[in-house]
Amino acid sequence: MKILHTSDFHLGKSLEGFSRLDEQKKFLDFFISKASKMFADIIIIAGDIYDSPNPPAIAEEYFYDFLKNLSDKTNSAIIIIPGNHDSPKRLAGIRPLVKSHGIIIYENHDDSFTTGFYKNVEILSSENGVIKLKINNNVVNIIALPYISEVRLNKSIFNLSQGDDKNALSFEEKLSSIINPKLSYISNNEYNILIAHLFTLNSKIDDSKTGYSLGGAYIVNCSILPADKLDYIALGHLHKHQAAGDTGKIFYSGSPIHYNKSETKTEEKSFLCVDIDEEKKLSVQKVNIPVFKKIDIWYANSPAEAIQMSKDKKDEESFVYLNVKTDTPLSSLDIRQIKSYKKDIVEIRPILSTKKFISIKDNMLEKTEEQKFIEFYKDRYNTEPDDNLIKRYMEILLH
To answer: What is the pTM (predicted TM-score) of this model?
Structure first.
């Protein structure tokens, strides 16, 4: 049994206003080209297909084209669950259109699916959200846990009078009560896979640990995921590829693209190729994904050096966070010059020397509000404000 596991596409996500759609499209095409040569039985997409419950039309168009082309070029069962960024109902709304392409989309953990053929994949049974598939003479039981929240369960999970640690325990207990009844529908003589979008204890967002929740998602202990009864557990939600727990069966694929500057510290992005042999021995290999447009952090020792750097590197395909050492605040003219050469500068951060910063602060404290306004205006527009504008500003300030 061969599985390809990916997640967290976040289609439509931008970087401080800069579109990432071109990179996202390149990844989707890359994945199809790889998958078409790998002959997987199942392809898993473990949530956060979109970055928003109401994604831009172009993001949906890219994903629908991706599904059609992936189905056309593989004979894999394609199984998708929603993440916390997705609208489950919207994502599952295309079920009638994709059934003939061998694509199965969950909306909720207890969904019921019609038995029969989905392209070359046969659903033999569907009970309490557990589907039994037959593909390439293999029988596979799928347990799916789309992102679960209090709202999506439509019932109260937490006692809000409790502290965070007790709320986390309540969430784990609730999650266990969802998972455990599903185990009665699986068999040791068949392959058994769990797909979930959640945050597990001791897993890392980037290179740091967290507390009990991230973005409203409570962290759960890996012990509630019954790895001893399952052959593989495919997770989404965290953007860093990693194993979760110590069973050797639970993995995050990570996101396919570096979505912020902290992620660039992690290893190369990848999706996972999972092989399970007839004796249920597991092999997990990373398939590295190219960096389609890197995120860079630049350091300049002066505004003049920053301008020269942006000129010299203007043709580099990169998003840039620029840090500039300076004795005075950067002028609007400096900023315009820097950005006139390098278009994809995400942020320019001046690093003022401490002594100069204190001097500027003390100097400003000695000035009147009118003097401060005149200095600000001169710095911004390279000219002094006229008397009427100064008068209007002071009237607004005093009233």
So the answer is: 0.83
Q: Compute φ and ψ for 278, nearest 5 degrees.
A: -65, -25
Helix residue ranges, H only, 55-189: 57-73, 88-92, 95-98, 150-153, 164-179
| CA gap 197, 234 in Å, rounded | 9
Tokens for 108, please give them: 């909720």
Q: What would the pLDDT profile of 59-71 be if each residue is shown by its tens digit? A: 999 999 999 999 9
Neighbours of 181 (CB within 10 A): 14
Q: Per mean pLDDT, which range of 44-48, 164-168, 174-178 is the poorest?
A: 164-168
Q: How many CA atoms lie within 13 A of 279 on its CB side?
A: 2
- Whether residue 27 is predicted with pLDDT greater than 70 in this model: the reply is yes
Domains of the chain, start order: 2-289 (3.60.21.10), 293-353 (3.40.50.1100), 357-398 (no CATH)
Positive or negative torsion for Cα 375, 377, 382, 383: negative
Q: How many CB atoms lie within 10 A of CB 359?
A: 14
Kind and range of the H or E run holding 382? none
Confidence at residue 154, expressed as pLDDT on a 0 to 100 scale: 45
Contact 32, 62 (CB under 8 A): no
What is the arrangement of strands in the sheet containing 103-105, beginning at the earlier edge strand? 103-105, 77-81, 42-46, 2-6, 270-276, 282-288
Helix (H, G, I), strand (E, B) or coil at 166: helix
Residue 345 makes CB contacts below 8 A (sequence gap 6+) with 310, 319, 320, 322, 338, 339
Write out the two tokens for 363: 């100097």
Which H or E element spans position 228? none
* 3-class secondary structure, 141: strand
CA distance 71 to 77: 8
Do the beta carbons of residue 178 and residue 147 sit within 8 Å? Answer: no
CA gyration radius for the chain?
Answer: 26
End-to-end CA distance of the chain: 74
